[in-house]
What we know:
The chain is mostly helical.
Amino acid sequence: MDYYDGCLSFLALGLKYETSRYHIQKILSIFASSEPSKAKEMEASRAKKKDRLKAEEAAKFPDDVESLKNEIRLLRQEVKTAQMHAHAYNTMIDVAEEMYHIPKKHGAKRQHSFVRRLIHPV
Length: 122
């Protein structure tokens, strides 16, 4: 039974088996009425598994202020490095255009677009 094994919702199971969530609920209620002790045991197992998955998910995120401050500091350093790379790239293009007399294309934008995407994602 996918409902008890995978912690899938009625809606997710309905999408998986291409039926309505109400049909899934009806099937599970029929199963529960035919084998109540097994259904209770499976429901308890499902609840434990769901709690464990929630705890694992919560453990992925830092919850103390210091680690969040460190992460912000590291991200700011990465943005600064990206800005320096963009400046070096633009300088390299400017020098090449002057050295090899390459005409500039009008309307071309080579400003720090990828840095803007880092700072202000769409």
